[in-house]
Amino acid sequence: MWLLRPPGVYRPQEDTWLLADALRTAPLPPRATVLDVCTGTGALAVTAGRLGAAEVTAVDVSRRAAATAWMNGWVNGVPIRTVRGHFGYLVGSESFDVVLANPPYVPAARVPDFGKARAWDAGDRGRAILDRLCAVIPLLLNDKGMALIVHSELCDSDATVHQLRGANLKAAVIARQVIPFGPVMRSRAAWLESAGLIEPGQRHEELVVIRADVTSR
């Protein structure tokens, strides 16, 4: 996979590839329609297309990210329809067989309105975007649809699972990976310790992929 990444667009990292691996083993239903939420470079959208998705839509609040996802689809021979805006805008107008999401989930003092930090900063518990996403995923899925969400265990995977189950989805953690802190997490380790989100001296996190399925309507 060839990926262009202009400045200011989130670079695919361990969380991206953990979710991509989960998608490969899911697998996609025949002729699947796929939505890639918070697409960044479009790496997951391209992965879905290469795995046989019939239609791929990528959404991001960043104009630059949306343009990059379209370009990376073109470079890799995967037609991607891109939407610049919040994923909630699609509720009521479209639904999909598969929803993929690598949303911002890094705990931060605030949720930025502009700048590249929008791709990772997500409020004091890292759930500012996750909670909104869990609320709308049932509305974005077709009958028998599936969602795959990746985030850090620091953001409370149990909360994600419980919210999805509360919306009558079957949900569980299906993949885990422990990784060392990256530059952003290292830079705010002291704050994370003071907030009780990590243990003193902890410099690693566990990534989780959560799968949610529509079982009945």
Automatic annotation (TrEMBL):
Assigned GO CC terms: eRF1 methyltransferase complex
Keywords attached to this entry: Methyltransferase, S-adenosyl-L-methionine, Transferase
InterPro entries linked to this entry: DNA_methylase_N6_adenine_CS, Euk-Arch_PrmC-MTase, PrmC-related, SAM-dependent_MTases_sf
Keyword set includes Translocase: no
Gene3D superfamilies reported for this sequence: Vaccinia Virus protein VP39 (3.40.50.150)
GO biological process: methylation
Gene Ontology MF: a single term: S-adenosylmethionine-dependent methyltransferase activity
PANTHER family tied to this protein: METHYLTRANSFERASE N6AMT1
Family according to the record: Belongs to the eukaryotic/archaeal PrmC-related family.
Name under which the protein is recorded: Methyltransferase domain-containing protein
Protein source organism: Kibdelosporangium aridum
